C-alpha cells in the first residue's frame, strides 16, 4: 500500500514537473510566426465571430481555455491550437492553473461539472431571439436618426450631399461600439453572453448600415457628383473611425471615475445568478414574447399602410424583415479569423463581415435599379422596406469599424486601410455595374 502511494506521488510530481517545463518552454520561446498568427486572428475577430462565440463559451465552461482579446491584452504569451483556431494563453500566470488541473485530474480521474450544463439549443435560440429583438430596435433608432438629422428637422444630412442620411446613425453606432463592444463588453458578458451579442451584433449592427452608405455614394456618382461621392466615403470613414476612438476613451474615463468614487459595480448582480439554465430560459421566454408582440404590431401597421407608399409603411415592413438580415450576418461572421484556403491564408481579413457588407451593397443596388425600372407604389414600398430593414441589418458599420480600429492598433496598421479599400472598392465597383450603368444606359431619372 505504501509502495502504491509512493508511485502515485511520483507520478503526480512527474506530471506536474513536466507540465511546468512545457509551460515555461512555451512561454519563453514563442515563435515569431505564432505571434503574427495571433495578431491576425485577433484583429479579424475584433468585431464579431458569429455563432462560434457559443462554441467558444461552452468550451471555456467545460474547463478548456479559449482565445480571448482580454487575455491577449493582459498576457502577450499565447500558443495556437489546431482546434477551431483557438488559442491557449500560456505564461507564468497560468502555471498554477496548469498544475492544479493536473493534480485534480489525477485525484478524481475525471472532470466533473459543478452545475448543470445549459443545452446548446437553448443558448442558440436565445441568441437568435436576442438578435431579432435588438435588431428591430436598431432599425427604429436608425430611422429616427435619419428623420432627426434629415432635411425635415435639423437639416444636417440629405440625399444630395456627402453628408448622407445614415451618417449620424453610423457615427452613433460606432461611438456606442467603443462602449458596448470594446470597453464594457467583458462586463456585459459576465451578465449574459446573449445580451452582449444582442447589443453589439443585433442593436449596433442594425443601427449602422454599410449598404445604405454605399448606395448614397452611388446615387451621387450617377448624378455626376463624383467629388461628393469620394468625399462622402473618405470623410465618412474618418468620422466613424474617430467615433469609436471617442467612445473607447470616454468609456475608459467613466471606468476611471467609477474606481475613484469606489462605486459598486453593476456586474455584482451576477452573484445573484445561481441557476444559469432557468435564467436563460426566462430570458428566452421574455425575448420571444417581445418579438411576437413587435411582429404583431408592425405586421398590422404594415398591412394597413401598405398602399400609401409612405415612409412609415416602409419602416413597418423593415421591422418585419430586419431580423433575417441580422441572422444572416451573424452566421457569416463565423468566417472571421478563418482565412481562405486549406492553410487559412489572409487570416487578418474578416471575410464574414466583408461578405455581409458586399452582398448587402449589391442587393441594395439591384433594388435601387428595380425601383427605377418599375415605378409603382407597391414595388417602391417593398424595395425600400427591404433596403431599410433586411439589407440595413445585413450590412454593418459598427463591426467594420471595430475591426478597422483593431487593425490600426495592431503591429500592421496598413491592414486597416487595405481592408477599408477592399471593402469600398468591391462594393462601389459592383454597385456601379448593377445600378449606375443601367441608369445611365436606360436614361432613368
What does this structure look like?
- This protein is mainly α and 445 residues long.
- It is built from 17 helices and two strands.
- Strand 1 (78-80) and strand 2 (87-89) form a beta hairpin.
- Helix 7 (167-183) runs antiparallel to helix 9 (193-207).
- The chain is globular.
- The termini are far apart.
- Mean pLDDT is 82; it is low at 8-29 and 62-114.
Number of strands: 2
- Please work out how many helical segments DSSP would assign: 17
Major β-sheet strand ordering: 1-2
Q: Segments where pLDDT lies below 50 for 5+ residues?
A: 8-29, 62-114
Radius of gyration: 25 Å
Largest sheet: 2 strands, antiparallel
Shape: globular
Q: Secondary-structure element sequence?
A: HHHHEEHHHHHHHHHHHHH
Q: Can you give the mean pLDDT?
A: 82
Share of helix, binned: over 70%
N-to-C CA distance: 94 Å
What would you call the structural class? mainly alpha
What proportion of the residues form beta strands (DSSP E)?
under 5%
Amino acid at each position: 500500500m505504501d509502495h502504491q502511494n509512493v508511485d502515485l506521488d511520483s507520478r503526480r510530481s512527474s506530471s506536474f514537473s513536466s507540465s511546468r517545463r512545457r509551460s515555461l518552454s512555451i512561454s519563453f520561446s514563442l515563435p515569431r510566426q505564432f505571434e503574427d498568427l495571433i495578431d491576425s486572428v485577433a484583429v479579424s475577430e475584433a468585431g464579431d465571430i458569429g455563432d462560434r462565440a457559443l462554441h467558444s463559451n461552452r468550451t471555456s465552461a467545460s474547463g478548456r481555455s479559449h482565445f480571448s482579446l482580454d487575455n491577449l491584452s493582459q498576457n502577450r504569451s499565447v500558443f495556437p491550437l489546431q482546434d477551431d483556431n483557438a488559442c491557449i494563453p500560456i505564461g507564468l500566470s497560468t502555471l498554477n492553473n496548469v498544475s492544479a488541473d493536473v493534480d485534480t485530474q489525477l485525484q478524481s480521474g475525471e472532470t466533473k461539472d459543478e452545475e448543470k450544463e445549459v443545452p446548446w439549443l437553448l443558448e442558440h435560440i436565445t441568441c437568435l431571439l436576442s438578435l431579432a429583438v435588438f435588431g428591430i430596435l436598431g432599425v427604429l433608432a436608425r430611422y429616427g436618426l435619419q428623420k432627426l438629422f434629415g432635411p425635415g428637422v435639423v437639416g444636417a444630412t440629405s440625399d444630395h450631399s456627402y453628408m448622407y442620411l445614415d451618417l449620424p446613425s453610423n457615427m452613433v453606432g460606432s461611438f456606442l461600439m467603443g462602449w458596448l463592444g470594446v470597453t464594457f463588453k467583458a462586463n456585459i458578458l459576465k451578465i449574459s453572453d446573449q445580451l452582449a451579442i444582442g447589443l453589439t451584433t443585433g442593436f449596433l449592427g442594425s443601427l449602422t448600415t454599410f449598404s445604405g452608405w454605399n448606395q448614397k455614394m452611388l446615387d451621387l456618382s450617377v448624378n455626376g457628383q463624383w467629388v461628393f461621392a469620394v468625399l462622402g466615403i473618405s470623410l465618412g470613414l474618418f468620422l466613424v473611425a474617430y467615433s469609436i476612438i471617442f467612445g473607447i476613451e470616454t468609456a475608459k474615463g467613466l471606468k476611471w471615475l467609477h474606481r475613484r468614487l469606489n462605486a459598486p459595480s453593476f456586474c455584482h448582480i451576477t452573484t445573484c445568478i445561481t441557476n444559469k439554465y432557468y435564467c436563460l430560459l426566462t430570458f428566452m421566454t421574455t425575448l420571444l414574447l417581445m418579438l411576437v408582440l413587435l411582429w404583431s404590431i408592425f405586421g398590422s401597421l404594415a398591412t394597413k399602410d401598405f398602399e400609401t407608399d409612405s415612409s412609415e409603411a416602409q419602416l413597418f415592413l423593415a421591422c418585419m424583415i430586419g431580423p433575417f438580415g441580422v441572422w444572416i450576418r451573424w452566421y457569416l461572421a463565423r468566417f472571421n479569423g478563418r482565412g481562405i484556403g486549406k492553410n487559412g491564408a489572409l487570416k487578418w481579413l474578416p471575410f464574414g463581415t466583408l461578405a455581409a457588407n458586399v452582398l448587402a451593397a449589391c442587393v441594395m443596388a439591384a433594388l435601387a435599379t428595380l425601383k427605377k425600372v418599375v415605378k409603382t407604389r407597391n414595388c417602391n414600398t417593398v424595395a425600400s422596406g427591404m433596403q431599410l430593414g433586411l439589407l440595413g441589418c445585413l450590412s454593418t458599420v459598427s463591426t467594420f469599424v471595430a475591426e478597422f480600429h483593431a487593425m490600426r492598433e495592431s503591429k500592421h496598421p496598413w491592414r486597416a486601410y487595405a481592408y477599408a479599400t477592399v471593402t469600398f472598392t468591391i462594393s462601389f465597383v459592383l454597385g456601379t455595374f448593377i445600378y449606375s450603368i443601367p441608369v445611365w444606359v436606360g436614361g432613368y431619372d
